[in-house]
């Protein structure tokens, strides 16, 4: 480990990795460049924004049996939110990156890239490229700005530095084409993962996060709409794209000063089956309903999507259509071949057939979301089906996502949210209680016995009385 003195304040600045070229002084935030022994002051890099990530400099873990330590971080911001790139030093001397976007993690390492790549401007979302390990599909393309940093980093970066990146996926595999240095991209490949899989140690716990942020991670907070003053429930650092339920203003709450992105138009109150702020008990966990939106296809058919969140960090969408309810989860592992134009795709070796292809437009939204949402936002949806399960690819110019939906019974949704039974009871045989059935049987028995009654009064009455007695005993037993 190399330790140098900060040219600005004199404090010791450590370089643990040979691959690091700069480090941020912990004390005065000066960025210190390590170049062939010479140390230069490159100006300051902003303090990172509190994002409630459990990862910190010093966190360790394992990827494919290789131990790593987190030694640096850059925080990047783009139109739909913010994410962290944590710089990893492996025990064997290698280095890599851990991408951390609101609890979704990817690990990558730089790899040599064959030549002949299109310019950043010509990379299209949904297009497929051969990265030397099969065809990968472009999932998003974004220009992001560095808003803060910490620790050691393998390239020179300062406030306002721009990252131009395209992410690609293939099954569980993940890759980034980084065009930040010009038209020849740098390739990073790896896969999606979780903190549990990486066996992470020295994570920040809830208390540590509260100490630095004044709040617990994953707790729904209220923010006053900067436009109209109404309270809006949101998740700091996790779901900070807000649409005010009262005035429809779009708000970016990723920074300490919530910023109004667009003023809203007051619309008539939109009736919803489930309400913002409702809590559902699912399994052993409480899920908070933090966002709701209505979407519309070109035929005018409308449906509602509710965003649910558990403080454990998982999100899912509950979708209400004319045909019932669906639970929908965004997929971290993509189906193959992963292109929405394919007639068939496969996930975990199960084939799904393409069924629908339609445009969807957000007609109304309110609450907090973990992605950029606004009325008028359009995506193209392609659905694939196998039995009751459907996979859907949603795509616009910036992003392609895959989700999997399974049906949820009406009763189930009511049980989760403790909603009363619907006002009109369903008719038909299935609605009959066991007691109703017993009464029917009793009447049927009386009717049947009325015929022999005419011929053999005494015997029939004895058996009839015994039968009625048995039935009423069972009524009483039921009441207990
Ligand atoms: Zn310093
Ligand atoms: Zn408002």
Chemical compounds bound to the protein: zinc ion
Q: Characterize the biggest β-sheet.
A: 8 strands, antiparallel, barrel
* Strand runs, count: 30
Number of domains: 3
| Strand arrangement across the biggest beta sheet | 7-8-9-10-15-14-13-12
Strand content: over 45%
Oligomer: single chain
What is the terminal-to-terminal distance?
Answer: 75 Å
Number of helices: 4
- Helical content class: 10-25%
Shape: globular
Mean pLDDT equals: 85
Give me the secondary-structure category: mainly beta
| CA-based gyration radius | 30 Å
Spans where pLDDT lies below 50 across 5 or more residues: 426-434, 475-480
Characterise the protein shown here:
The protein is mostly beta strands. The chain folds into three domains: 2-193, no CATH class; 218-417, no CATH class; 430-479. 12% of the residues lie in helices and 45% in strands. It has helices at 206-213, 410-417, 434-453, 457-479, and strands at 2-5, 12-15, 22-24, 30-35, 38-44, 60-63, 66-78, 81-90, 95-101, 104-111, 128-130, 135-153, 162-170, 173-178, 186-193, 221-224, 231-234, 241-243, 250-252, 259-262, 279-282, 285-296, 302-309, 315-321, 324-330, 344-347, 350-369, 378-386, 389-395, 400-408. It binds zinc ion (2 copies). One zinc ion is lined by residues 6, 8-9, 11, 25, 27-28, 30.
